[in-house]
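Q: Give me the 3D complex with nicotinamide-adenine-dinucleotide.
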Amino acid sequence: MKRILITGGAGFLGSHLCDRFIKEGYHVIAMDNLITGDLKNIEHLFKLEHFEFYHHDVSKFIHVPGELDYILHFASPASPIDYLKIPIQTLKVGSLGIHNCLGLARVKNARVLIASTSEVYGDPNVHPQPEEYWGNVNPVGPRGVYDEAKRFQEAMTMAYHTYHGLETRIIRIFNTYGPRMRLNDGRVLPAFIGQALRGEDLTMFGDGSQTRSFCYVDDLVEGIYRLLLSDYAQPVNIGNPDEITIKEFGEEIIKLTGTSQKLISLPLPTDDPKQRKPDITKARSILGWEPKVSRAEGLKITYDYFKSLSKDDLFRMAH
Ligand code: NAD
Ligand code: UDP
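A: Here is the predicted complex, encoded as structure tokens.
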């Protein structure tokens, strides 16, 4: 039986990865310090013989008994309000955390896959973004703590690959959504759906002309699974190229939820990228991957999930 360590395993993406690798017949070890994650995301796995949870900060030395075949490094605050609140921990998990994971991988002779991000492209001057684009990041702006941590993480991973011959994989994830996102994580989808469910106006930042391309979580997980088992060590974009402005996205959420509230404009955060859309030529040719779930289908599933939360959760998670 293959053994896999998933850091950030109690988070949104990490918990879906735990589900997938359990389904594929792996022994799954989730590690998380719960700084932005929630045990509720994985409590359904606790009773399983082949699932373990370690409450641990991966920026500190990691000890895992027994063999490991794979390590997925997903631990990191991921939403702008999270990493702006905890900037130093964000920089640490992207630097000390990945160093610990890579060191552990050498000892265990394991393959490592890291969660990088479209944020390595910053506010991109090239559109859509191919992996060859080096990006346009402000290192000392508010988003720098996240973007530069992720860029360092890629550099460190590539150095272990080149100098130690470690097997490594790098995925650049574009905006992904689905059940188990936190309603109060500040990302646009939970923000808009939460506001609609609470009967509040939807807070669009700026004039809403900035674009994003939203990928449903199951599609992303399939891409991660394929990349992990591939033999490709260079970065690969995984995301849905179906691009939309934030204003149009808000209008879609208003229609979906049937709310009578409206879009209101708040100031645009500093360095907010103006456009983002993945070039997925590599994912298509190397992994035979492309997204299958349309935004209409994915949003419906995600809305049903948020609707199923109790009123208490809805208001507790509002702020
Ligand atoms: P999330 O906040 O739901 O999950 C992150 C998890 O990491 C949380 O459970 C948190 O408690 C844990 N964590 C943070 N620091 C830790 C530390 N020092 N030690 C142990 N655990 C720690 O966010 P997510 O959306 O699931 O993102 C997961 C990963 O994917 C992150 O690395 C993020 O940068 C990356 N990513 C996500 C997206 C997206 O659209 N969701 C896009 C690009 C990249
Ligand atoms: N956004 C918005 N209202 C919100 C939250 C976000 O208009 O309540 C905008 C934000 O300015 C950005 C886009 O939606 O242009 C996506 O933001 P998110 O935080 O989800 O992801 P990221 O900026 O990291 O891509």
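A quick observation: The mean pLDDT is 96.
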